[in-house]
């Protein structure tokens, strides 16, 4: 799924209006009914609803949703903020349509003397605010619908609107934002004012997720978010280019290569994992298991001698190549060719290991996977990154990324830096986090949609490395190997959490669900 920038919204809208064709007000009606449907399916009709509508089309949506909810039997207190006495055309039309509703009480700005503005009262109320605003009481049971601003936000909220947002945020009410939490920019919020951004419990967003939703620091604003399809014309979605994508299960499923019936373990790849050291042999074990369960035909682990028994006992399917040293890897000799190589899980940073790793990088001609300590050993050695084979996959979490490429204050900044680095060094960066981003050497960014917070657990990254390398070994091109590996890993984690809860799961539980994850993806293909 493509992620567009919010400044493209008008273009997508206009094309749909001209080519479907559909009237602009009817497109708004379609968007509003999707929002209404979502609200009706979650909140009972006796829930008191307070609506905050802004002067633009986001406010228009909110007014249309208000009409629909009243028709469905909800009682609403609606506030339309119109300080400049200027509403967008469709907002105006929806204000007029609201007036047709029987029994809805209309008033202009609430007078300052009217200081006891409590709700719920008898029947639904509509108030247009042009100057003074006495906010209604928002209690724990109140549902707030936030339709102040959406994709048309032009600067951070301040003044009166800032105060309204702060008032909403300080209440115990449940908040649903339409399209975007008001005050949040769709992309870059580096210069924004956090206290003037609505903190929603649920954001119902139109057609595609916004880039800002992918960043951890914005979760406090978006809460849970859900995409609703409002029928933007497929041709304009196709024609409009973007660098950002959100990977959905059907897309991941299409990447799975079909296995020939005549396959042998030798042509589904021999994986080499250079991993483990004394005290961290579990990382090698997990990566080896994950590679095997992802479909690698053969897996060898090159590691410190102390790992031999551990590995051969816990992963009898894997071969073991013991280093001369007992506690760490001191030399890496490739005496045969491998279909895919990964370096890093539990590697440690012994100076002999570092030397062996740097020597290996000088010999490698094909893309490899670098994770964990391999990344830490690369930090400060840009000359080594420069000489990595094209399409080499680096899998840093944000701390490892910053260690490698310098500190970043926000996820937005980090993502831009990652794009710059992926392009500069012709590498694939898998930036791990809640919405892991796979960044290609062309600078395309693919956000993962599977996975859950339970996967923030020891060994989860080693598992991912094993999976991506296992796919590479089977002949997947590095980009689909990274995308599919990340997606499968997340889906296996989701299945594990479904079975045993997020708190319970460990890396082993993720591995144990790889099979079910494959099965689930296979089902998307039929
Ligand atoms: N294709 C789509 O995505 C559709 C979008 N629709 C809605 O339309 C919204 C976009 O509507 P608009 O472009 O009218 O934009 P908004 O409604 O988000 O806001 C525009 C208004 O806010 C004012 N404004 C902007 N920043 C401000 C600030 N910091 N302080 C005070 N005022 C400020 C502008 O002057 C303008 O009056 C979407 O978010 C969505 O809710 C839907 O109606 C249907 C179709
Ligand atoms: K909003």
Automatic annotation (TrEMBL):
Any one Gene Ontology BP term: nicotinamide nucleotide metabolic process
Catalytic reaction annotation: (6S)-NADHX + ADP = AMP + phosphate + NADH + H(+); (6R)-NADPHX = (6S)-NADPHX; (6S)-NADPHX + ADP = AMP + phosphate + NADPH + H(+); (6R)-NADHX = (6S)-NADHX
KW NADP (keyword) present: yes
Cofactor info, note text: Binds 1 potassium ion per subunit.
Lyase listed as a keyword: yes
Domain YjeF C-terminal positions: 248-521
Needed co-factor(s): K(+); Mg(2+)
Chain positions recorded as (6S)-NADPHX binding sites: 57-61, 150-156, 179, 283, 346, 397, 462
Positions of K(+) binding: 58, 146, 182
One example GO MF annotation: NAD(P)HX epimerase activity
Protein residues bound to AMP: 432-436, 461
Source organism, top-level taxon: Bacteria
Protein keywords: ATP-binding, Isomerase, Lyase, Metal-binding, Multifunctional enzyme, NAD, NADP, Nucleotide-binding, Potassium
Subunit structure: Homotetramer.
Name by which UniProt lists this protein: Bifunctional NAD(P)H-hydrate repair enzyme
Protein species of origin: Coprobacter fastidiosus NSB1 = JCM 33896
